[in-house]
Amino acid sequence: MENSIKKEWLILVNPNAGVGKGFKDWEDISNILNEHNFEYEAVFTERKLHAIELVQEKIAEGFRKIIVVGGDGTMNEAVNGIFQQEIVPTTEITLGMISVGTGNDWVKTFNMPVDYVEAISIIKEEQTLLQDAGIVKFYNETIQKIRYFVNMAGLGFDAMVANKTNLDKENGKSNPLLYIKNLISVLFSYKSTNTKVTVDNHVVNDRIFSIGIGIGQYNGGGMQQTPNAIPDDGLLDVTLIKHMSPLRVIASVRRLYNGTIAKHKRVETFVAKSIFIESKIPIMIEADGESLGHSPLEFGIVPKSVKVIVNRRA
What we know:
Elements (H helix, E strand, L loop, with lengths): L8 E5 L3 H19 L4 E5 L5 H12 L3 E6 L1 H13 L9 E6 L6 H4 L6 H10 L2 E13 L2 E7 L2 E5 H14 L7 H10 L5 E7 L2 E13 L21 E7 L3 H13 L8 E6 L2 E5 L4 E4 L2 E20 L5
Parallel strand pairs: 1-2, 1-3, 3-4, 4-14
Antiparallel strand pairs: 5-6, 5-14, 7-9, 7-13, 8-9, 8-12, 9-10, 10-11, 12-14, 13-14
Protein backbone atom coordinates (compact mmCIF):
# COMPACT_ATOMS: atom_id res chain seq x y z
CA MET A 1 0.00 0.00 0.00
CA GLU A 2 1.34 3.42 -0.95
CA ASN A 3 2.98 5.42 1.87
CA SER A 4 2.78 2.44 4.25
CA ILE A 5 6.56 2.19 4.64
CA LYS A 6 8.44 3.10 7.81
CA LYS A 7 11.89 3.53 6.24
CA GLU A 8 12.79 6.75 4.42
CA TRP A 9 15.35 5.40 1.96
CA LEU A 10 15.52 2.42 -0.35
CA ILE A 11 19.11 1.20 -0.80
CA LEU A 12 19.43 -0.72 -4.05
CA VAL A 13 22.58 -2.85 -3.88
CA ASN A 14 24.15 -4.66 -6.81
CA PRO A 15 26.44 -7.18 -5.09
CA ASN A 16 28.12 -8.02 -8.42
CA ALA A 17 29.04 -4.41 -9.27
CA GLY A 18 32.76 -3.84 -9.54
CA VAL A 19 33.21 -7.62 -9.94
CA GLY A 20 31.95 -8.31 -6.44
CA LYS A 21 32.87 -5.00 -4.83
CA GLY A 22 29.21 -4.28 -4.09
CA PHE A 23 29.00 -7.41 -1.94
CA LYS A 24 32.47 -7.05 -0.40
CA ASP A 25 32.02 -3.40 0.63
CA TRP A 26 28.36 -3.47 1.68
CA GLU A 27 29.15 -3.94 5.37
CA ASP A 28 31.37 -0.84 5.37
CA ILE A 29 28.79 1.16 3.42
CA SER A 30 25.92 0.10 5.70
CA ASN A 31 27.96 1.06 8.77
CA ILE A 32 28.52 4.54 7.36
CA LEU A 33 24.82 4.89 6.51
CA ASN A 34 23.99 3.91 10.09
CA GLU A 35 26.49 6.43 11.46
CA HIS A 36 24.70 9.14 9.43
CA ASN A 37 21.34 7.99 10.85
CA PHE A 38 19.82 6.90 7.56
CA GLU A 39 16.52 5.04 7.98
CA TYR A 40 16.59 2.53 5.13
CA GLU A 41 15.64 -0.80 3.67
CA ALA A 42 18.31 -2.56 1.61
CA VAL A 43 17.44 -4.81 -1.33
CA PHE A 44 19.90 -6.78 -3.45
CA THR A 45 19.76 -7.43 -7.17
CA GLU A 46 20.01 -11.07 -8.21
CA ARG A 47 20.20 -10.89 -11.99
CA LYS A 48 20.40 -8.58 -14.97
CA LEU A 49 17.42 -6.17 -15.17
CA HIS A 50 16.32 -7.13 -11.63
CA ALA A 51 16.85 -3.54 -10.43
CA ILE A 52 14.14 -2.35 -12.84
CA GLU A 53 11.63 -4.70 -11.19
CA LEU A 54 12.75 -3.87 -7.64
CA VAL A 55 12.43 -0.12 -8.16
CA GLN A 56 8.90 -0.46 -9.52
CA GLU A 57 7.88 -2.71 -6.62
CA LYS A 58 9.35 -0.42 -3.98
CA ILE A 59 7.85 2.75 -5.45
CA ALA A 60 4.49 0.96 -5.28
CA GLU A 61 5.19 0.32 -1.58
CA GLY A 62 5.73 4.03 -1.03
CA PHE A 63 9.48 4.66 -1.34
CA ARG A 64 10.39 8.01 -2.87
CA LYS A 65 14.12 8.16 -2.09
CA ILE A 66 16.55 5.67 -3.61
CA ILE A 67 20.30 5.23 -3.26
CA VAL A 68 22.00 3.03 -5.85
CA VAL A 69 24.99 1.07 -4.57
CA GLY A 70 26.47 -0.13 -7.83
CA GLY A 71 27.86 1.07 -11.12
CA ASP A 72 26.53 2.95 -14.13
CA GLY A 73 24.57 -0.10 -15.29
CA THR A 74 22.74 -0.37 -11.96
CA MET A 75 21.91 3.33 -12.10
CA ASN A 76 20.58 2.81 -15.63
CA GLU A 77 18.27 0.03 -14.45
CA ALA A 78 17.05 2.13 -11.52
CA VAL A 79 16.19 4.99 -13.87
CA ASN A 80 14.34 2.64 -16.21
CA GLY A 81 12.39 1.33 -13.23
CA ILE A 82 11.42 4.89 -12.34
CA PHE A 83 10.23 5.57 -15.89
CA GLN A 84 8.32 2.30 -16.20
CA GLN A 85 6.23 2.84 -13.03
CA GLU A 86 3.05 4.91 -13.34
CA ILE A 87 2.30 5.72 -9.70
CA VAL A 88 4.07 9.08 -9.41
CA PRO A 89 5.82 11.50 -11.81
CA THR A 90 9.48 10.58 -12.31
CA THR A 91 10.54 13.88 -10.71
CA GLU A 92 9.01 12.85 -7.37
CA ILE A 93 11.69 10.18 -6.92
CA THR A 94 15.03 11.32 -5.48
CA LEU A 95 17.99 9.29 -6.74
CA GLY A 96 21.47 9.18 -5.24
CA MET A 97 24.48 6.98 -5.94
CA ILE A 98 27.28 5.33 -4.00
CA SER A 99 29.69 4.18 -6.70
CA VAL A 100 31.13 0.69 -6.49
CA GLY A 101 31.38 -0.02 -10.23
CA THR A 102 34.38 -0.25 -12.52
CA GLY A 103 33.72 2.83 -14.67
CA ASN A 104 31.80 5.18 -12.36
CA ASP A 105 31.30 7.67 -15.18
CA TRP A 106 27.89 9.12 -14.32
CA VAL A 107 29.12 10.53 -10.99
CA LYS A 108 32.07 12.29 -12.64
CA THR A 109 29.82 14.81 -14.38
CA PHE A 110 28.40 15.83 -10.99
CA ASN A 111 31.75 15.74 -9.13
CA MET A 112 30.44 13.06 -6.78
CA PRO A 113 33.28 11.41 -4.85
CA VAL A 114 33.82 7.66 -4.92
CA ASP A 115 34.94 7.73 -1.28
CA TYR A 116 32.04 6.21 0.66
CA VAL A 117 32.15 8.58 3.64
CA GLU A 118 32.25 11.66 1.44
CA ALA A 119 29.55 10.38 -0.92
CA ILE A 120 27.16 9.50 1.90
CA SER A 121 27.78 12.86 3.59
CA ILE A 122 26.80 14.63 0.35
CA ILE A 123 23.75 12.39 -0.17
CA LYS A 124 22.63 13.29 3.37
CA GLU A 125 22.43 16.95 2.30
CA GLU A 126 19.94 16.03 -0.49
CA GLN A 127 21.06 18.80 -2.84
CA THR A 128 19.32 17.86 -6.10
CA LEU A 129 19.23 18.68 -9.77
CA LEU A 130 16.64 17.74 -12.38
CA GLN A 131 18.69 16.16 -15.14
CA ASP A 132 17.58 15.11 -18.60
CA ALA A 133 17.10 11.51 -19.67
CA GLY A 134 17.84 10.18 -23.12
CA ILE A 135 15.51 7.66 -24.69
CA VAL A 136 16.48 5.27 -27.47
CA LYS A 137 14.39 2.93 -29.59
CA PHE A 138 16.51 0.03 -30.84
CA TYR A 139 16.11 -3.49 -32.16
CA ASN A 140 16.88 -6.99 -30.93
CA GLU A 141 16.56 -8.99 -34.13
CA THR A 142 13.12 -7.87 -35.41
CA ILE A 143 11.71 -6.66 -32.07
CA GLN A 144 11.84 -2.95 -31.28
CA LYS A 145 12.59 -2.05 -27.66
CA ILE A 146 12.98 1.15 -25.63
CA ARG A 147 15.57 2.12 -23.03
CA TYR A 148 16.21 5.32 -21.07
CA PHE A 149 19.73 6.46 -20.24
CA VAL A 150 21.19 9.19 -18.03
CA ASN A 151 24.85 9.29 -19.03
CA MET A 152 25.82 8.19 -22.52
CA ALA A 153 24.94 5.88 -25.39
CA GLY A 154 27.68 4.51 -27.62
CA LEU A 155 27.35 3.10 -31.13
CA GLY A 156 29.58 1.11 -33.40
CA PHE A 157 33.12 0.60 -32.14
CA ASP A 158 32.26 1.93 -28.69
CA ALA A 159 29.40 -0.57 -28.33
CA MET A 160 31.63 -3.46 -29.43
CA VAL A 161 34.22 -2.55 -26.80
CA ALA A 162 31.50 -2.23 -24.14
CA ASN A 163 30.09 -5.63 -25.10
CA LYS A 164 33.50 -7.32 -24.79
CA THR A 165 34.12 -5.55 -21.48
CA ASN A 166 30.74 -6.68 -20.14
CA LEU A 167 31.48 -10.27 -21.12
CA ASP A 168 34.83 -10.05 -19.32
CA LYS A 169 33.12 -8.72 -16.18
CA GLU A 170 30.59 -11.55 -16.27
CA ASN A 171 33.54 -13.95 -16.33
CA GLY A 172 35.12 -12.29 -13.30
CA LYS A 173 37.79 -10.30 -15.14
CA SER A 174 38.33 -6.71 -14.11
CA ASN A 175 41.09 -4.16 -13.69
CA PRO A 176 41.40 -0.40 -14.19
CA LEU A 177 42.76 -0.87 -17.72
CA LEU A 178 40.15 -3.41 -18.86
CA TYR A 179 38.37 -0.94 -21.15
CA ILE A 180 41.64 0.16 -22.74
CA LYS A 181 42.74 -3.46 -23.23
CA ASN A 182 39.49 -4.27 -25.01
CA LEU A 183 39.60 -1.06 -27.00
CA ILE A 184 42.92 -2.14 -28.49
CA SER A 185 41.90 -5.77 -29.02
CA VAL A 186 38.66 -4.85 -30.84
CA LEU A 187 40.34 -2.10 -32.83
CA PHE A 188 42.10 -4.34 -35.33
CA SER A 189 39.00 -6.40 -36.18
CA TYR A 190 36.29 -3.73 -36.20
CA LYS A 191 35.19 -2.28 -39.54
CA SER A 192 33.59 1.14 -40.00
CA THR A 193 30.04 1.05 -41.37
CA ASN A 194 28.32 3.11 -44.06
CA THR A 195 25.74 4.97 -42.03
CA LYS A 196 23.10 7.66 -42.42
CA VAL A 197 22.87 9.88 -39.35
CA THR A 198 20.08 12.46 -39.14
CA VAL A 199 20.73 14.96 -36.34
CA ASP A 200 17.57 17.09 -36.11
CA ASN A 201 17.43 18.30 -39.73
CA HIS A 202 21.11 17.77 -40.60
CA VAL A 203 22.12 14.58 -42.43
CA VAL A 204 25.55 12.91 -42.44
CA ASN A 205 26.20 10.02 -44.86
CA ASP A 206 29.63 8.51 -44.26
CA ARG A 207 31.66 5.55 -43.05
CA ILE A 208 31.22 5.82 -39.31
CA PHE A 209 33.65 4.40 -36.79
CA SER A 210 31.88 5.37 -33.57
CA ILE A 211 29.18 7.67 -32.22
CA GLY A 212 28.75 8.94 -28.67
CA ILE A 213 25.43 10.48 -27.60
CA GLY A 214 25.73 12.10 -24.21
CA ILE A 215 23.69 13.53 -21.38
CA GLY A 216 26.84 13.38 -19.25
CA GLN A 217 30.45 14.02 -20.23
CA TYR A 218 32.28 10.77 -19.46
CA ASN A 219 32.31 7.13 -20.52
CA GLY A 220 34.71 4.20 -20.63
CA GLY A 221 36.14 4.88 -17.17
CA GLY A 222 36.98 8.56 -17.63
CA MET A 223 37.01 9.23 -21.37
CA GLN A 224 35.45 12.57 -22.33
CA GLN A 225 33.59 11.62 -25.48
CA THR A 226 31.05 14.44 -25.09
CA PRO A 227 33.10 16.88 -22.98
CA ASN A 228 30.71 19.82 -23.36
CA ALA A 229 27.51 17.97 -22.44
CA ILE A 230 25.26 19.74 -19.94
CA PRO A 231 22.97 17.26 -18.18
CA ASP A 232 20.00 19.62 -17.81
CA ASP A 233 20.01 21.65 -21.05
CA GLY A 234 17.36 19.60 -22.88
CA LEU A 235 19.82 18.59 -25.60
CA LEU A 236 21.76 15.49 -26.61
CA ASP A 237 25.46 16.05 -27.32
CA VAL A 238 26.66 14.03 -30.30
CA THR A 239 30.27 13.13 -31.13
CA LEU A 240 30.52 11.44 -34.52
CA ILE A 241 33.87 9.80 -35.33
CA LYS A 242 34.34 8.97 -39.00
CA HIS A 243 36.45 6.12 -40.33
CA MET A 244 40.07 6.08 -39.16
CA SER A 245 42.88 3.57 -39.44
CA PRO A 246 43.71 1.64 -36.26
CA LEU A 247 46.99 3.49 -35.85
CA ARG A 248 45.27 6.86 -36.16
CA VAL A 249 42.74 5.80 -33.55
CA ILE A 250 45.52 4.82 -31.14
CA ALA A 251 47.24 8.14 -31.75
CA SER A 252 43.97 9.95 -30.98
CA VAL A 253 42.98 8.16 -27.77
CA ARG A 254 44.61 10.87 -25.66
CA ARG A 255 42.03 13.31 -27.07
CA LEU A 256 39.27 11.24 -25.47
CA TYR A 257 40.91 11.69 -22.08
CA ASN A 258 41.84 15.36 -22.29
CA GLY A 259 38.54 16.55 -23.77
CA THR A 260 39.87 17.68 -27.16
CA ILE A 261 38.27 14.99 -29.34
CA ALA A 262 36.10 17.59 -31.13
CA LYS A 263 39.25 19.21 -32.58
CA HIS A 264 40.13 16.09 -34.58
CA LYS A 265 39.54 16.56 -38.33
CA ARG A 266 37.71 13.22 -38.58
CA VAL A 267 35.23 14.18 -35.85
CA GLU A 268 31.99 16.14 -36.05
CA THR A 269 29.99 17.29 -33.03
CA PHE A 270 26.37 18.39 -32.73
CA VAL A 271 23.68 19.14 -30.19
CA ALA A 272 20.21 17.88 -30.98
CA LYS A 273 16.81 16.88 -29.65
CA SER A 274 16.33 13.94 -32.01
CA ILE A 275 18.65 11.58 -33.86
CA PHE A 276 17.92 8.83 -36.40
CA ILE A 277 20.57 6.30 -37.38
CA GLU A 278 20.23 3.86 -40.28
CA SER A 279 22.66 1.39 -41.85
CA LYS A 280 22.46 -1.66 -44.11
CA ILE A 281 24.78 -3.54 -41.76
CA PRO A 282 23.38 -3.32 -38.19
CA ILE A 283 25.32 -1.13 -35.77
CA MET A 284 25.46 -2.22 -32.11
CA ILE A 285 24.45 0.10 -29.28
CA GLU A 286 25.19 0.34 -25.57
CA ALA A 287 23.62 2.77 -23.10
CA ASP A 288 25.27 3.66 -19.79
CA GLY A 289 27.66 0.77 -20.46
CA GLU A 290 24.88 -1.80 -20.92
CA SER A 291 24.81 -3.71 -24.23
CA LEU A 292 21.33 -3.39 -25.78
CA GLY A 293 20.86 -4.28 -29.45
CA HIS A 294 21.35 -2.73 -32.87
CA SER A 295 20.19 -0.23 -35.48
CA PRO A 296 17.96 1.24 -36.83
CA LEU A 297 17.96 3.64 -33.90
CA GLU A 298 15.88 6.60 -32.84
CA PHE A 299 16.99 8.91 -30.02
CA GLY A 300 15.05 11.54 -28.13
CA ILE A 301 15.28 13.41 -24.85
CA VAL A 302 13.04 13.84 -21.81
CA PRO A 303 14.11 17.19 -20.31
CA LYS A 304 14.56 17.64 -16.56
CA SER A 305 12.93 14.32 -15.78
CA VAL A 306 15.24 12.64 -13.23
CA LYS A 307 15.86 14.18 -9.77
CA VAL A 308 19.41 13.31 -8.78
CA ILE A 309 21.52 14.17 -5.75
CA VAL A 310 24.60 16.14 -6.77
CA ASN A 311 27.69 17.61 -5.12
CA ARG A 312 26.98 21.31 -4.59
CA ARG A 313 30.25 21.64 -2.65
CA ALA A 314 32.37 21.28 -5.79
